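Lab notebook, entry 185. We have the chain sequence and a SMILES string for flavin mononucleotide, and the next step in the workflow is to get a structural model of the bound complex before anyone spends time on docking refinements. Request logged below.

Task: model protein plus flavin mononucleotide, output structure tokens.
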Amino acid sequence: MDIMDAIKTRRSVRKFKDDDVPDEVLAELFEAARWAPSWANTQCWRFIVIRNKDVKERLAGTLTPKNPALKAMTAAPVIIVSCAEKGVSGFYRSDAVTSHGDWLMFDVALSVQNLMLAAHSMGLGTVQVGAFNVESVDKILGLPDNIAVLTMVPIGYPATEGGSRTPRKELSEMVFREKYGEKFL
Ligand SMILES: Cc1cc2nc3c(=O)[nH]c(=O)nc-3n(C[C@H](O)[C@H](O)[C@H](O)COP(=O)(O)O)c2cc1C
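Result returned:
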């Protein structure tokens, strides 16, 4: 699949077939994830693969009420939890280089996007889930203090053709020339 096709046809998938996603396939996705760019090549991303039904149910229980991904958390054969080592991205020695502080979200997002695009190109569906109780997930997964959980990504073969139909803003609303607010197109 051409990269522009992959980017433009990927859509969040929240309904999955029962078919398993073998570890060898997951390994290819992590291969895509690990080649993402990161702050000073610090590669702060960490991933946890969840297949256990009981753990999936407990993780689903941390989602916000009415989260559209609730059923996906147990329907998907696998959940990939994206985490980050704190205090490395955006830091020189132990000092934050910019006023943004820790850049961990930025780096992990790049790597998860690689993973999701690779998954899509291989016929797999994903949805990134960020609306959940972080402290509860910390406990369920036994995360050490230096590791932050960021998103959970149910992954599997899509049960329906095409994902959600989510529109995008026009370039005129998001791209400016020379100064914020000056039209690009
Ligand atoms: C950081 C982040 C957090 C998200 N959290 C959730 C979530 O908790 N539940 C959900 O159903 N979708 C979640 N999504 C998916 C978005 O709703 C979805 O990407 C967006 O509506 C655009 O649709 P598309 O992915 O189909 O293009 C999240 C996406 C991102 C990037």
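Notes for the group: Strands lie at 45-50, 78-85, 91-92, 95-96, 125-126, 147-156. Worth checking against the assay data. Residues 3-173 form a domain with the NADH Oxidase fold (CATH 3.40.109.10).
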